[in-house]
Amino acid sequence: MSVIVSFQTEPSGEAMVSLLRAPFDLPNAGQGRRVMLLELEGGDGKTRGKQLARLIRRCPPVKDVLRHVLQQNDVDEAVVPIYIRFSDEKVDRLPWEELYVLPPGFVALDARWPIARISARVQILKPRVLRLPFRVVAVLSAARDRPGLPQFEALVRAVDEAREASLPTRLHVLTGDKEVFDAATKLGEPHITVEWLAATRSEVIEQIAAAKPAVLHILCHGGVRAAEPGLQVATPRDFRNRAAVGSVYLGVNDVARALGAHESWLVVLAACDSANARTGQSLARALVDAGAPAVIGMRKITDLSATDLLVDKLYPQLFRLVKTASEEDTNDRGLEWAPALTAARQAAAAGVNLSRDLAWSESILYVQDDVLRFSLDSGAKLSPEEIAELRAEKEEWEAFLGRLDPATAPRNLLHDVKAKIQEIDTALAEGIRP
Questions:
Q1: Do 100 and 132 share a domain, yes or no?
Q2: Residues 392 and 292 in one domain
Q3: Is 390 helix (H, G, I), strand (E, B) or coil?
Q4: How many angstroms separate the CA atoms of 153 and 312, rounded?
């Protein structure tokens, strides 16, 4: 149940605003309205938010549906996400997350009405399969000035909470940051694995693809090459050399290829310049246009503390959404990602001037036209024979590890063998195929 407000931009500079979806029938639902897209006036969020509200409410069906939806007073009523669908950069550049209506005020700060965006380049999404453990792959490799340890620790907390809440979850980390690598290794948890980030673009793509992420989380610097937005991830050598940015550049197509054809569920870009790069293009939007089901990015260059807070509040809610959707008594399960950002926005808004300190509005979500459909993997449990085989395989790997001399064996070999043993331990603990 959601609201979709559509903008179709015309060569004249006008746009046709219409209502594509509403949670109830309206007699005039098909009636659109032409509006002129002008620069917003005013330096504060409330002023801009009111202008955005006037803009979309010039369309009578949109005005009617918002009046009804935003008047609900029961906080326990169903969540109704509000999506802005567009085909033009002019619409995308508007700060929709600042939408302001009285009541309730800033709409996106109320859990009942999360705001997200839909790019008009329609992609046909094949349903996913919820395979457990739910896999999060985190590339935590920004460079010297953006340490990844706080986000690693936040991810670990969220994964542990999800597992305690009966959602088997696994975290695999790719990093060039020794501090992150050592912290992950020290934990010694079979459901948390780590490997050094590779030195070349093709190898990094292969690393991500091999990890089969349901959720891909990336902390790095954003950038632009040949007018294409992308990501600059830092290798171990970059960290040792104290490089300002990473030397491995991943463009939109590289990330899309790493995600695989029909595996990923969500991408989270904790990267500066990820949402509106200097060219005006959006990496987050471009990834959705390339087929990703949903991407969370930042609307502008953002302080690292803001993205750390985002990660800390985002993932607990994200895992709850997955678990709740998986428990629906239906074969046609759908997952709305929009509510995942509410807790992060509310935390960033706590104790600040909401109109002036707008970090709370800078995390944004792009999704496809339809919610992500998925089914449960009912055949993942290990049989007694498979358990015996895995135990025997673990013994072989442990015997091999015992024959290696830590002083002379290649470090990568030692790490890979230990990672394999961890993977088997996780499979045995959860009764699920690795």
A1: no
A2: no
A3: helix
A4: 9
